[in-house]
Specification:
Structural class: alpha+beta
CATH architecture: Alpha-Beta Complex
Number of helices: 4
CATH class: Alpha Beta
Distance between the termini: 42 Å
Number of domains: 1
Largest sheet: 6 strands, mixed
CATH superfamily: Oxidoreductase, molybdopterin-binding domain
Bound molecules: the ligand Nc1nc2c(c(=O)[nH]1)N[C@H]1C(S)=C(S)[C@@H](COP(=O)(O)O)O[C@H]1N2, molybdenum atom
């Protein structure tokens, strides 16, 4: 009984308010799954000077990769603890990027967008992930590669990510235009505007 009680308390401590655990891995997509071949894939970071930093698939694979184990929290209230990913840190991709702007808009193949403060994706907080649980990322979960920003609600983790555009202002992305919060911290329950 004591052990069970202790375990329950641990699980609850790992769950942000209003969230429950899910065993499966739900798929949440606002539209059809775009079919993106790795041979056609590239990823861009564009700054205010118009400078574009570009990586094709082989160049992404050649960068140092990290294994990432994190909890993820969907605004629709499911959470999944201890998910395993492999990908490239945004710190690595931003190493040679010079900008004085504070925000990014993430753009995906298929047209999805989501906005993020630059500081929320640097310092070990975000990745371009291309493996889940030891296998290549399934197309329905964002393969070949997705943004992974696990400390914010999962709608910020843009599937099929294609690039990040540096922005002067924090403009709303797709869900943010439709009533979701501009920031999306699950621990503060920043679900809606
Ligand atoms: N491109 C794109 N990325 C997206 C979405 C989407 O519809 N399109 N949905 C978001 C939402 S609301 C969630 S909860 C997660 C779901 O990721 P999953 O389908 O891998 O669980 O992806 C996010 N990233
Ligand atoms: Mo979501």
């Amino acid at each position: 009984m004591a052990v069970f009680g202790g375990r329950r308390r641990e699980e609850n401590a790992a769950l942000p308010p209003g969230q429950h655990l899910t065993e499966g891995f739900p798929v949440l997509s606002a539209g059809p799954t775009p079919q993106v071949e790795t041979t056609d894939w590239d990823f861009l970071i564009r700054t205010e000077t118009g400078t574009t930093h570009r990586w094709d698939w082989d160049e992404l694979q050649a960068l140092p990769a990290e294994d990432i184990t994190v909890d993820i929290h969907c605004v629709t209230s499911w959470s999944k603890l201890g998910t395993s990913w492999r990908g490239v840190s945004l710190d690595t991709l931003f190493a040679d990027v010079e900008t004085s702007l504070d925000f990014v808009m993430a753009h995906s193949y298929g047209g999805y967008t989501t906005n993020l403060p630059l500081e929320e994706i640097l310092d070990g907080k975000a990745w371009i992930a291309y493996e889940y649980d030891g296998d290549g990322l399934d197309p329905e979960h964002g393969g070949p590669a997705r943004l992974l920003v696990p400390h914010l609600y999962f709608w910020k983790s843009a599937k099929w990510v294609r690039g990040l555009v540096l922005q002067d202002d924090d403009e709303p992305g797709f869900w943010e235009q439709n009533g979701y919060n501009m920031h999306g911290d699950p621990w503060r329950e920043e679900r809606y505007a």
